[in-house]
Amino acid sequence: MSAQTTYSFFESVEKSFDKAALFTKWDNGILEQIKACNSVYRMNFPIKRDDGSIEVVEAYRVQHSQHKSPCKGGIRFSHAVNQDEVMALAALMTYKCAIVNVPFGGAKGGIKISPRNYSVYELEKITRRYTSELVKKNFIGPGIDVPAPDYGTGEREMSWIVDTYQSLKPGEIDAAGCVTGKPITQGGVRGRKEATGLGVFYGVREVCNMPDVMKRLGLTVGVAGKKVVVQGLGNVGYHSAKFFRENGAIIIAIAEHDGAVYNANGINEEDLLQFRIKTGSVVNFPGATMLAQTSDALELECDILIPAALENVINGDNAPRIKAKIIGEAANGPCTPEADEIFIEKGILCVPDMYLNAGGVTVSYFEWLKNLSHVRYGRLEKRFTENLNARILAQIEELKGEPVVDKERQIIMHGAEEIDLVHSGLEETMINATREIMDIWHSNPGIPDMRTAAYVSAINKVAITYTELGIFP
Ligand code: NAD
Questions:
Q1: d(CA 473, CA 42)
Q2: Cα distances (angstroms) measured from residue 415 to each of 192, 292, 375, 419
Q3: Active site residues
Q4: What is the per-residue burial (b if ≥16 Cβ within 10 Å, else e) of 210-247?
């Protein structure tokens, strides 16, 4: 197949799936069922703009798989939303949840608007109307389908959704579990906001800690000192950059839609964010140079490239010019199948989206569990652990004949709070998923790349559920 062939996003996902399916033992019928999008809900609804005009909004909710309930996936606000894109993202959610052992089917939502062109009041009207359309068709609910934030949406939109849902379903005791990514005050969980970026960091760190993998790439073991480029300073890009920097990596460039900033000695993502909030743009950020085009950042000499904006940004055209040794797919679908072929030729390691950015859905799962159990993590055991640790510490000090130093004392005494448990659950999930995928890859010499290994892991897990359900007797 020539490098010029282009695929739609959903076709790209199907192509990667088919490539991986060759390394599994499942019948074609099961594979076809796993691949298919079970339900596609396309809607149009009118809203009245602030100037009094009426606008018809196009929106989607796709439920790719109900092999586990509820199904789960973010809601995207973007002018580029279309049915193919939402279907692809919903399919990726199915595979993502399976890989990280989150017991949900895959779904995704999209509203075809550019949020920058709407007032907050208009956005609220659109979000609330979208939610009520989902309620009408039974496409949302803690046991049915649970949305979350995605590109162009955040805590604010999630709180509008939960409020609309609760007002339409009075008395539903688990209603807070109808959506995740909510503010803490509305039933959110601590650690959700940074979860995807932190998960990206944990996943790439685990890869960087594998001596044989680093040797193959000609890199030293560990994250510290590695040169990193990040595309997108939104939720995922900002937090990815933050955790890489805090752990000793050097963020040499950050690209936004209106420009890319470069500094070989490092960029502080928080300073850049504050600058953008103040001026409305990253352009002319002090202490950094602007690249000629924002997409040039992708082609810089670096160790790790983190695309954290949109899909298809690395494709057959620019992949030959990519110089990074590792690509950590923080966004969904940033690299096309043509790019994958070029990475294999060039020996670039692409750590795939379908598990690397699963931090969001993993912590969303923790949030959903919190909503169903109606209790904050750590509430029951924190004090008990601290009392116990105090007694153990007293015994240690008595045996030692001297007090333990203050810093150590604080660490030993500390009983786990919600944020500690969420971060620890996320770290465990990302490390296990990375090792599992690497094992599949390395134990089957025919598997060409990590993405295919990740798909093999996902296909096996979903197929087992289908066969156990007795759907294919
Ligand atoms: P976001 O809206 O918070 O941020 C996206 C950022 O990308 C924005 O700042 C935008 O200006 C920037 N951008 C747009 N076009 C660009 C371009 N051409 N070059 C550089 N920057 C550009 O969205 P997000 O939640 O951070 O999501 C980003 C990606 O991560 C999406 O692909 C999304 O599907 C994926 N993702 C998000 C989550 C989550 O928890 N938010 C979870 C999994 C995957």
A1: 33
A2: 20, 51, 17, 11
A3: 108
A4: beebbeebebeeebeebbbbbbbbbbbbbbbbbbbbee
Q: What is the pLDDT of residues 237-264, one digit of tens each?
A: 999 999 999 999 999 999 999 999 999 9
234 in contact with ligand 1, CB cutoff 6 A: yes
Query: Does residue 255's CB lie within 6 angstroms of at least one atom of ligand 1?
Result: yes
**CA-closest residue to ligand 1 atom 40:** 360
The alpha carbon of 205 and the centre of ligand 1 are apart by a number of angstroms equal to: 21
Q: What whole-number distance in Å separates Cα of residue 22 and Cα of residue 6?
A: 22
| Domains in the chain with CATH codes | 38-186 (3.40.50.10860), 190-381+416-473 (3.40.50.720)
Looking from the CA of residue 237, the nearest atom of ligand 1 is 26
Residue nearest to atom 28 of ligand 1 (CA): 309
- Find out whether the beta carbon of 333 lies less than 6 Å from any atom of ligand 1: no
How far apart, in Å, are the Cα atoms of 257 and each of 2, 26, 188?
30, 43, 30
Answer whether 112's CB lies under 8 Å from 75's CB: no
Q: Is the pTM of this model over 0.85?
A: yes
User: Tell me, what DSSP letter sits at residue 69?
Assistant: S
Q: DSSP 3-state assignment of 132? A: helix
Please, what sign has the CA dihedral across residues 291, 294, 299, 302?
positive
How many other CB atoms are found less than 10 A from the CB of residue 381? 13
Q: Is 456:232 a contact under the CB 8 Å cutoff?
A: no
CA of residue 308 to ligand 1 center, whole Å? 5
CB of 362 sitting under 6 A from ligand 1: no
Predicted confidence (pLDDT) per residue in 75-120, tens digit: 999 999 999 999 999 999 999 999 999 999 999 999 999 999 999 9
Residue having the nearest C-alpha atom to atom 4 of ligand 1: 234
Asked if 77 contacts 153 with a C-beta cutoff of 8 angstroms, the reply is yes
Q: Is the CB of 331 under 6 A from ligand 1?
A: yes
